[in-house]
Design brief:
This protein has helices spanning about 20-30, 60-70, 85-100, 125-130, 140-150, 155-165, 210-225, 230-245; strands spanning about 5-15, 35-45, 50-55, 75-80, 105, 135, 175, 185-190, 195. It is built from 8 helices and 9 strands. Helix 1 packs across helix 7. The chain has one domain: UDP-N-acetylmuramoyl-L-alanine:D-glutamate ligase. Bound molecules: 3-hydroxy-5-(hydroxymethyl)-2-methylisonicotinaldehyde. 3-hydroxy-5-(hydroxymethyl)-2-methylisonicotinaldehyde (PXL) binds near residues 14, 80, 112, 209 and 212.
Amino acid sequence: MERVPTVLTIAGSDSGGGAGIQADLKTFSALEVFGMSALTAITAQNTRAVTAVFELPPEIVAAQIDAIVADIGVDAAKTGMLASSALVRVVAARVRERGIRPFIVDPVMVAKSGDRLLREDAVAALREELVPLATVVTPNLPEAEVLVGRSVQTLDEMRVAAEAIVRLGAGCAVVKGGHRQGEPIDVFFDGAQHLEIPGRRIVTTSTHGTGDTFASAIAALLARGFGLEDAVRGAKEYLTLAIEHAYPIGHGHGPVHHFWKWWMTPKSGAPGAPNQEPVAEGRGG
Ligand code: PXL
């Protein structure tokens, strides 16, 4: 029998179920790989706000990764919320020492609610220790600005930012255009080829966990053997349909529908329902 690819998320828990490891594990399952998790932090959170954060000790994060590598093996891994420089460093050390690849770094900095998920003093560790290990880095516009230290708003600036991230040592950068007005174009650069990957803008408030879902989908598709460009395009397609099929949950930014392909029962309030309002400016993606 064919072996099922195994994919690891190194990320935080979202008690609201829409982002973090919850989104990652749902994405892995939907895309037909076996999901595993090394938990970095616990957030108390709903669709409106993060109300508390508890960071786990670096040793237990390292122990989770070691336990998984020692028995099950990792065909691809991705990172989400890493919270602190100590956690960034321990994850970088483990990924380097265990030779974990492909390795997708989603440089998570703030939640959809605006709450910080990475301490300011951890940005340098992320840039210097984690990004150079990455097969792909997937920043949104604000994250790209923090990583490269300059404005990233126009398509040209997105291209320059992607190049700068590759110069930091990443194999590839996908700068996501979801936060721009109009068509959400992602800019892809792998050190050789620049691509503009167009998408469809869906008017909805159900955008919580979109970044986590995108990075996890890339990890799953890479683990299944797709090439980088196909994995990124496939991830975007999967995410677009998951946003489109979202049903209302909570009163803020609701989650996407990871299992749009499998659920048979029509959902009241699915696309176009009363809570589907225009995406707030500067949010989403
Ligand atoms: O979407 C980024 C993200 C990652 N990880 C956790 C989160 C969020 C956003 O809310 O809560 C735990």
